[in-house]
Amino acid sequence: MALTDLLLTVLLLAYPTGALAALGVGGAAGRRLVAACGCTGSLAGLALGAVCLGRGVVPTLAAPFLPLTGLALRVDGLSAFFLVVVGVVGGAVTVYGAGYSAAYEGRYSLRLLGAMLNVLLLSLCVQVMADNALTFLMAWEAMSLSAYSMVLTEHDRPGTLRAAHWYIAVTHAGFAALVAMFLLLSAGDLTASFASMRSASLTPGVRDAAFALALLGFGTKAGLAPLHVWLPMAHPVAPSHVSALMSGVVIKMGVYGFVRVAVDLLVGGPPWWGGLVLGVGTLSALLGVLYALMEHDLKRLLAYHSVENIGIIFIGIGAGLMFRSFALPALAALGIVAGLYHTINHACFKGLLFLGAGSVLHATGTRNMEELGGLVKRMPRTALCFLVGSCAISALPPLNGFASEWLVFQTLLGGSAIPQPEIAVIMPIAVAMLALTSGLAAACFVKAFGITFLAIPRSPEAARAQEAPGSMQIGMATLAVACVALGLTPFVVVPVLASSLAGLRAVAPAAVTFSLALPLQVAGPSGQMSPPILALGLVLLATLAWLALRVLGADRRLRRGDTWGCGRIGQTPRMEYTATAFAEPLRRVFAELYRPTRDLSIDFHPASRYFVQSIEYRSEVHPWIERVLYDPLLRGFRAAAGWIRRLQAGSLHLYLLYLTLAFVILLTATRWWR
Amino acid sequence: MTIGYALEAAQAALALLLAPGLVGLVRWLKARLQNRRGAPAWQPYWELAKLFQKEVVISSNASWLFRVAPFVVFASAVAVTLLVPILAVPLPFDGVGDLLVVVYLLLLGTFFLSLAGLDPGSPFGGMGASREMTVAALAEPTVALAIFALALSAGSTNLGQIVARTTANPAAALSPGHLLAFGALFVVTLAETGRLPVDNPATHLELTMIHEAMVLEYSGRYLALIEWAAGLKLLIFFSMLGNLFVPWGVAATLTPAALALAVVSLAVKLGVLAVVVAVLETRIAKLRLFRVPELLSVSFVLALLAVTSSFLLR
User: Fold this and answer.
1) What was the pLDDT predicted at A517?
2) Binning pLDDT at 50, 70 and 90, where does residue B204 land?
3) Beta carbons of A354 and A248 less than 8 angstroms apart
4) Separation of alpha carbons A252 and A222, rounded Å
5) A527 and B290: CB-CB below 8 Å?
6) In this complex, is the C-beta atom of A514 within 8 Å of any C-beta atom belonging to chain B?
7) Is A409's CB within 8 Å of B76's CB?
8) In chain A, which residue's Cα lies nearest the Cα of B148?
9) CB pairs below 8 Å between A and B: how many?
10) Which residues contact B127 (CB under 8 A, 6 or more apart)?
11) Average pLDDT per consecutive 10 residues, chain A (674 residues; last block may be shorter)
12) In 3D, which of A116, A57, A129, A56 has the Cα closest to residue A86?
């Protein structure tokens, strides 16, 4: 037990030390201190999670040494798993940040950035270990606010303020829902432990309300459609390592909270819960990838993909909840395991991709893909890491994205076990939408990697790009290795995940039998695969083909020449295919959804319409969901704010009147209450 | 066990050997149907041999990815021939990958080929890559649903088990779910292997082409690998259509007689499908690119009906 206590202490001390060091020490030394403390804390969290998962111990800590009583920590299987997620990404991100934030020196406040980074990491760790609502909510708010301050880092850039406002407004709406939910669950006592909430007997109406509030509150943080609007705005404007942390880990807290409440505290519910989550997940996955396809800002594209992947995670969890309500515990466990597996996978590859995009931004100063290109020769290591991430997110075997999507598919295929065919039919539709999503994701990442890294540079900045500094490379390489490792070892990850669910009453881990032998076997719907053998086979076959060409005497001459261009001389970047052109066929196919605006003006020669002098073409896709759903809301909000503003007239007499009124009303209210 | 692995190797070798011939056969059949004499069916073998003997010319814009992609495409296609029951079930590698793995392995090849299409910076390559990924993405839900329909009756996504269940229960092959899924997967086969009406494999410089535009910059041994892999893909889809839906003839025991029967039945199935495709390609014109999604949605609806009927008729 001593080991876990030691790790917990290191974790709880390292981050605050880092935050204080950041405030106290500036310059390169400060950056290094921030990275060292953040990395130490993350590694301690990672080790703590790993020890708890490996040994099955559940350390607890009530915090008598803090002035606020009622804080309580407890590391069960689910917490330990999320500690690992925070640790892996947090470690890589802090190391990367040391190099990346050097460019901010003298321009933006590095002290605040470093301090908030550590506060964010601490609040993430505390939050997953929280054992009562008070601790959870305080950590939640610390997380939201520290992230908010980091989103504001580049405050003088256009769009940053707007993004930050959206973020803080939506996140607080979600926070309100969470407070209400916990008040319902704990019957008004926020310091009541989670254990007492588990055993509380609630009426179905209260349970339904709590579930709806949880989906709303955690959905805003996770970025589930249609609550996702803030995400594609806020994630891209933050410094890239913060974007990686936000997309990789912070939005996963929505997943953690939802699993904790819906699966652990509420122990599942009626089928419509699962159906709703499944539906929302499917919608998010599809909308996320479709809007990502239209995006030519590299970081916005990645942010939309976070919406997609959160959708995939919730498809798994929703299916799990649904199986739970039909008393199919093995399949329920499979669904939640699949969702959690995709959680850590997405944390790794999305963290990696954001760090890669950060390196590109660092080297070229632009996020616009139409101005990039040819970086594979100028930044070979960044390109390789980004390629690994692209393959992983496109669910290509044998990388980690494939392993978890395969599990989600297997979960959904188990839908045939649901006794009511009219409900079971939901599953194949989800399968089809998931398949469409992963196909479109592959198309999107051919675009993202191909346009950004391949062919000829489209701007002088891209042509002058230099490889990222060492610390940034280490950060990316760590996550790339994690992607490969998680992809090759589902036969280790899946049983560990299944055992981490042991404390959850909603699923029966004993009923899940994942074979530990090499082929990964799934209990219910039975399917098999073995990523390590698959990877080995692919490498072997490619090597064999290469050797065979040599041995069997294929011609080995190789000549460099110009790209063939129908006889024209010289090739310029303007002849290349652009990101817009690449996505054009899909934009036409889904035109009903995108409703693009087009602006085409052709300037003809005055003598004849057969001679065109210039063509100007402009086309934009603006997500109409924002317009339809949020514009009325915003209008109402503005009207209400205008009305409320009258209260604040600036007159001291009026304020004194308010004070007196409020005081008298409160006094009478307390008297009546008794 | 050793026999099993020998069989795997033999199956992959047979697939590699037959693939160019299958492409040639379809071409020859088409030529005869169109009153042309046509090149003999073994012409693709000579073409491959010729390409292997030719020098490679690579665009000066291209990176290492352009030179790696052919090997990824080729290796993933050969890996699939080790998983799909072309001759016998159950194969020793049956547990290495199921039907979903097969689909995503093929997507891996498509992914890298599309990247390689973008690499030289040629507008043709970009156009081909964009269209190839569009078609691949839109075909994906149909494939997944067809898998669902098959897995539903077999209780597994394992290829060996799907074949075994249908062999054990021949009536299942005629169930509406099976027939509809066959129709859906047939349309997908046309799309994924670049046949008419989705893509025209016979043309090189036409604004409507997909696959040929993407590989335009390839030459010599790299082009040979890619062409061979494309042939393998055709053979893989044909043998999946033949062996998963009409599993008779697939060897369940490793006796010489059963294997001989398997080879003969494979030849018959491939021949029949080649004739069907040749007739189809003679009878219909290429669809406009933006009509292709309509064709794919037809196949999607077929697959959805397949799954629904399997659910309701259980």
Assistant:
1) 46
2) low
3) yes
4) 6
5) no
6) no
7) no
8) A413
9) 269
10) A577, A581, B207, B213
11) 82 90 85 91 92 78 59 86 94 92 83 92 93 91 94 89 92 94 87 85 90 95 90 91 93 94 87 93 94 92 95 94 87 88 95 95 91 91 95 93 91 84 85 93 95 91 90 94 92 84 64 50 67 92 92 82 80 86 89 84 86 85 82 90 84 90 92 76
12) A129
Residue written as token pair 């066959």: B182
Cα dist from A121 to A11, B225, B304, whole Å: 10, 49, 46
CB-based contact, A192 to chain B, within 8 Å: no
Tell me how far CA of residue A634 lies from CA of A166, A174, A226, in angstroms.
11, 16, 15
Q: Between the CA of residue A349 and those of A227, A391, A480, A485, B185, what are the distances in Å?
A: 23, 9, 7, 12, 32
Contact call for B75 and A538, based on CB within 8 A: yes
Which parts of B155-255 fold into alpha helices (H)?
A: 159-168, 176-192, 211-214, 220-245
What residues of chain A lie within 8 A of the CB of B125, using their CB?
577
Mean pLDDT of chain B: 89
All residues of chain B having their beta carbon less than 8 Å from the beta carbon of residue A374 are 61
In this prediction, residue A500 carries a pLDDT of 81
Which distant-in-sequence residues (6+ apart) come within 8 Å of A264 by Cβ? A78, A194, A198, A503, A504, A505, A506
pLDDT tens by residue, B30-58: 999 999 998 999 999 999 999 999 999 99
Q: Which residues contact A422 (CB under 8 A, 6 or more apart)?
A: none
Tokens of B297: 């949605």
Q: Which of residues 370-389 of A touch B (CB under 8 A)?
A: 373-374, 376-377, 387
A647 at the B interface (CB within 8 A)? Answer: no
Nearest to A559 among B55, B151, B217 (CB): B55
Q: Please tell me the distance in Å from A365's CA to the nearest CA on chain B.
A: 22
Tens-place pLDDT, residues B152-178: 878 788 888 888 888 888 887 888 888
Judge whether B237 and B58 are in contact, CB under 8 Å.
no
pLDDT of residue A626: 78
Task: Tell me if B289 and A585 make a contact (CB, 8 A cut-off).
Answer: yes
B208: pLDDT confidence band, cut at 50, 70 and 90? low
Nearest to A178 by CA among A233, A222, A119, A232: A222
Task: Kindly state whether A558 is in contact with chain B, defined as any CB-CB distance less than 8 angstroms.
Answer: yes
Per-residue pLDDT reduced to its tens digit, B284-310? 888 888 888 889 999 999 998 888 888
Tokens 């030849």 correspond to B267
Say whether A560 sits in a helix, a strand or coil: strand
CA of A94: how far to CAs of A36, A357, A365, A510, A564, in Å? 8, 16, 21, 38, 45
Rounded distance between C-alpha atoms, residue A349 and residue B41, angstroms: 46
Q: Which of residues 135-174 of B touch A (CB under 8 A)?
A: 136-145, 148, 151-152, 155-158, 161
Instruction: Name residues whose C-beta falls within 8 Å of residue A335's C-beta, 6 or more positions apart in sequence.
Output: A316, A317, A318, A319, A320, A321, A322, A323, A408, A411
Q: Which among B53, B72, B157 is the nearest to A527, CB-wise?
A: B157
> What are the chain B neighbours of A589 within 8 Å (beta carbons)?
134, 138, 290, 293
